[in-house]
Model the fold of this input.
Amino acid sequence: MKYYMDTNQFVDVFIPNSLDELIRWTQFDKKLHGKDWIYRGQSDFNWNITSTLERYVEGLNSRKKSHHNIYKAERSVICGFESKIPISFDTQIEKLAYLQHHGLPTRLIDFTHNIDIALFFALSGNVNGNSAIYAMSREYLRMATMFSMSNFEQNGKLYLYDLENDSVIDSLLKKSKTERVVYVNPQYRNERIKIQEGCFMFSANLESKFSYCVSRTLGTMVLNTAHPRLIKFLLKPEMKVEIQKYLDLKGINQCYIYPTEHTKYKAELESICNYYRK
Done:
């Protein structure tokens, strides 16, 4: 497997020669290091990781030749949802996760614990070009986040940022000046999150691009280790037939990834989503 370092994105780039080589790498590395990874598939290798909210605001600015505040845009999306759909949520992060998985623009960025799911998204819409799989060590990310942020205190207890506590996550949604990324392993599980084995990441500071916050987070660690911080696999077009056959054998397709959800607010959700697709 070929390798080079992309210093612009602060990422190690690997170029597997085959799907088998990629799968064997993930299995071997987990067995060797005892660490779990999260993955994200993107159909274009040249794309940086950005949230749907970031892309939505960039589109507004491009069309209207103006500067829209991303925090106000996020608030507008949430208020628009709340005005039409009377669903209550215990926490803000749970609400954002619901919006994200129903197609509204949010700061959350989808990752998965299952590389097969990431492969599905990597193949979507770009048959003839290079695609990408991002991989990040959850353990490294957890350590980097704890290293770079102060602890959060609640009811006399200190919570480190392994982020299994929704109140901790909600507090970070308000820390607008913290240029770090946050990993979220949802405790709430709708059908899509379950099937996609989903988790999220987001920038604590929305005014800074996600890619910059990633480099800031991972760059805070000063460890004597050769363990990669962030990996990007380049998937060449000639691998895609092999990957598609692999996914077909596993039954991973559009219907599997997006199960039909029976919700009485289906029409309202579709109407809101159509507004933000304009």
